[in-house]
Amino acid sequence: MTPFNRPPYVGSEIGYIEEAIKNRKLCGDGGFTKRCNKWFEEHYEICRALLTTSCTHATEMAVMLSDINEGDEVIMPSFTFVSTADAVVLRGATPVFVDIRPDTMNIDETKIEDAITKKTKAIMPVHYAGVSCEMDEIMEIAKRYGLKVIEDAAQGIMSKYKSRYLGTFGDFGCISFHETKNISMGEGGVLLIRDPESIERAEVIREKGTNRSKFFRGEIDKYTWVDAGSSYLPSELNAAYLWGQLEKVEEITADRMRSWNLYYRGLKDLAQKGCLELPYIPEHCKHNAHMFYIKCKNLSERTKLIDFLHKKEIGAVFHYIPLHTAPAGMKYGRFHGEDLYTTVESDRLLRLPMFYGMEEMTVKKTVHAIEEFYGE
Fold first, then answer.
1. What average pLDDT does the segment 174-194 reach?
2. For residue 58, which of 31, 163, 189, 361 is within the disulfide window of CB 3.0 to 4.6 Å?
3. Domains present along the chain, CATH in parentheses
4. What integer pLDDT is reported at residue 25 of this predicted model?
5. pTM of the prediction?
6. Is the separation of the CB atoms in 211 and 197 below 8 Å?
7. Per-residue pLDDT for 355 more than 90?
8. Distance of CA 181 to the CA centre of its chain
9. H or E segment at 292?
C-alpha cells in the first residue's frame, strides 16, 4: 500500500530526544526549544519566533495579539483548514469568507477590499500548498485600511514570495509542524512576530498569562498573572524531534521537490490532452513541494478516480470542504460576494501521495495508475 503521507524521519531525532531526557528539562522553553526559535529568527530574519504546541495555537495567539474581539470581522478564504476560522470564532469575532483564485487556490486578493467594513480588524491569507498569496497587494490593502495581517503559512515552511519567506510579511505568521507537514514534531507550530512591541505580550499569552519568561531571564524577582493566556509551550521532547529535522530542512525540501517534479513531468501529457489540470506556480513564488494535487473535471470523476486508486492500493485524498458550507461556518461566519470558484474547484482537487523519502518507483506507480484510469 502506498500511503498518502508518511511522517518525516531523518535519523538524528532519537538521539536528540535522549539528550533532552538526560538534560532533565522536559517542559517548555528548554535548550531545544530555544535552538528552534533561534533558527527561525536567524534564517527568516524575524525579530521573534516562539515554538507552540500547534499551528492552531500559534494562530490563536496571533488573533489575541491583534486584539480581535467580539463583534470584529476577519477576512479569509473559505478554502482552508478549520483552525484559521476557529481562532477568530473563539474570540467572538466573525470570519468573513471571500472567493479564491482558481489557479493557486489562494484567496483572491481582488475580492478583499469589497469585503471590508467598519468591523474589519484583520486579513488572514492562507498560503495553500506552500504557494504564496499575492502579498504585495494584500499588504497594501491592509496598510490603506489600518488592518492587521495574520499569515496562515501552515503549509509554507521554506516557501518564498519574491525572495522572502512566507510568514514574514504580515504582523504575524503561523507555520505548522503537524506530522503531515514537510518537517514535523508530531504536533506543533511556530509563531513569527514582526513587531518587537508584540514580543512581551506574546510571551505572556504563551506562558498562561504570566510574566514567567521575564522571571527566568532574571528581569524580575518573581512572576505573576498579568494577562489572559493559556499553555502554548511544547514539550522539549517535541522540540528535540523538530531540531533534527530543521538541521536537514534543505535536504527534506529538495527530496520532496524531486518527487513533485516527477509527478509534474509524468502527468504533463494527460494535462495537455485535457484529461486533468496540474498545479500552477507563479514565477515570483518559490514553493516547497508540500503537496502534489491534480484537478479532475468534476466531483463525480474525482470520486471515481479516488476509488480506482484505492483499489490499486494508492492513498489519494480530497482536501477541505469549504468552511462556508459547513454547519459551523454557516453559524459563525458569512460569505461575502459570489462563490464562483471555492466550491467548484475544491470539488475537483485530488491530492496524491507525497512524503520525504518517497521512491521514484512509487511516484511512477501512481502516475501509471492515473494514466490507466484515463485510458479506460
1. 97
2. 189
3. 13-246 (3.40.640.10), 249-375 (3.90.1150.10)
4. 84
5. 0.97
6. no
7. yes
8. 8
9. strand 292-295
